[in-house]
Structures are given as C-alpha cells and as structure tokens.
Amino acid sequence: QVQLVESGGGLVQPGGSLRLSCAASGSIFSINAMGWYRQAPGKQRELVAAITGGGTTNYADSVRGRFTISRDNAKNTVYLQMNSLKPEDTAVYYCNADLRQRGGAVSARYWGQGTLVTVSS
Length: 121
Known about the structure:
The chain is an all-beta fold. Helix content is 0%, strand content 59%. The chain has strands at residues 2-7, 10-12, 18-26, 28-39, 46-51, 57-59, 67-72, 77-82, 91-101, 108-111, 115-119. The strands form two sheets. Strands 2, 4, 5, 6, 9, 10 and 11 form a seven-stranded mixed β-sheet that branches. The chain has a four-stranded antiparallel β-sheet with strand order 1-3-8-7, with no helix packed on it. The chain is elongated. The termini are far apart.
C-alpha cells in the first residue's frame, strides 16, 4: 500500500552530476526521516544522506560537500543532488522513508527498489 519509486540514475562521467528523486505514494499519514543509501558490488549498504521532517540533514563523510539532500513535503518526495561524482560513487542507490500509514499506530521503514548510478569514463 506504500510505494517508494526512485528515478534519475544512469551513467555519468567523473566530475559530472546527477539528481536522484524518490516519491512516496499510497496510504500515507506522515513521513518522518527520509534518506538515501547505496550499495556497491561486494560491499554493505551504507547511509549516504538523510533528512528529518524538519529539514535537518546528515551526510556520510565521503559525500559531504558534493551531495545535497532535500525534500518536498507536499509531494512526499526526497531528492539527492550529486555533484563532482567519482568512480567510487558507483552503486545502486536506495531511497528510504520512515513513515506512518493512515490508520497505523506506529511508523515503519520502507525502501525503494533502487536505481543504478555508474560513474565511468
């Protein structure tokens, strides 16, 4: 009943930029924190950036200063602007949202299906 759909991944050259989007839809009462994670081949999934409902942000050291997370609460959408991309940023990027469904008593975490970002010349 709740879906998170990512878009915006693709192939980009080193130094380039991409913007990822993730829209949450369905029977949603409220959304707390939203975030982006990534998983490179052979590695564990890691937090890239997160943003609270009030707009407080948190970034992994490896992307701070290059990536910017933002959200549009009216659209239930979170964005990740990625600049100065490096080959080591290559990974599947997953959207995550901590949200409460209509009629639900507690919040739960939901994941998108992932979008591939490849940084290569």
